[in-house]
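FAQ: What does the model actually see?

It sees only this:
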Amino acid sequence: MAAKWEHGVPVKTHLAVSGVYSLQQPIFGDVVYRLLLAGDASIDIDAGKAAERQSMTIVIQQPLDGGCEVAWPSGVKWQEGRAPFVDSRPAAITVATFTRIDDSDLLFGRVGF
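And it is asked to produce this:
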């Protein structure tokens, strides 16, 4: 008999994303957001909860005709040292992971797996 998963990381899909788009850190643990773009978007991430590690993965998918630009939140400490490029080709997918270790303003980010 196959193992049955009863718990996992929640995935929240948001359709027709454009404009300023706010995402909430989980109270603790991890969350995944899947954003299906409909236009240019600016992502905002809330401050999270004190004394907890929070991790967020954002999967950004371009529409079939592509061309949507994405602005990352300010104040992110990127692994590469600067905000990464979001692929705007038709139906392209960009994956970013963010981690905050407490309620500080320091948010770590990286693109890729």
